[in-house]
Amino acid sequence: MVGDGIEDLAAEVRALADRRAVADVVLAYARGVDRRDWAAVRACFEEDAVVEGTVHQAPLEPYLRSLVEGVEHFPATMHFMGNQLVEVEGDTAEVETYAVAFHWMGDPPGAPHDGNLVVGVRYLDRLVRSPGGWRIRLRRVSSEWRRGSYPPS
Q1: Is it the case that residue 118 has pLDDT exceeding 80?
Q2: What is the mean pLDDT of residues 78-89?
Q3: Is the peptide bond before 151 cis (omega within 30 degrees of 0)?
């Protein structure tokens, strides 16, 4: 009977470690974008990943090119990653993450919000366990609200 308790505890620890590792991939993505560390962003995804973004759907490489172009338009960004629901089943995981992303041009005189963009999104990610750890295979980005526009009108 003692062995069963230890095995149950070990399984629970593995499950908690997997959930934390999966959540960390989503956080690493946000940090990579905000620091303009595109290699770190790329490392969050599987080679064959697909992203269904707010503007278009594409395989990873074309999507990343458009992401870099859009983000680098702004001198600063900050992603605030909020609530996360992580569900792990073996070597796959589903994560829903609420986020607020600030895209900041600055505060020009007389127009305090001109050119700035703030968006509320949900990242809906499907991850897989790979030899290098957990990676995103499919990302769907659901735009919930926005203040400002890009490109500026």
Answers
A1: yes
A2: 97
A3: yes
- Residues 107, 75 contacting (CB under 8 angstroms): no
User: What's residue 69's pLDDT?
Assistant: 92
* Location of structure tokens 């908690």: 16
The C-alpha R_g of the chain, in whole angstroms, comes to 18
CATH 3.10.450.50 holds for 2-147: yes
Q: Are strands 133-147 and 45-52 parallel, antiparallel or unpaired?
A: parallel
Q: CA 3 to CA 144: how far, in whole Å?
A: 48
Residues in the chain: 153
Token digits of residue 138: 């499919």
- Phi and psi, residue 67, nearest 5°: -65, -45
- The tokens of 11 are what? 């399984």
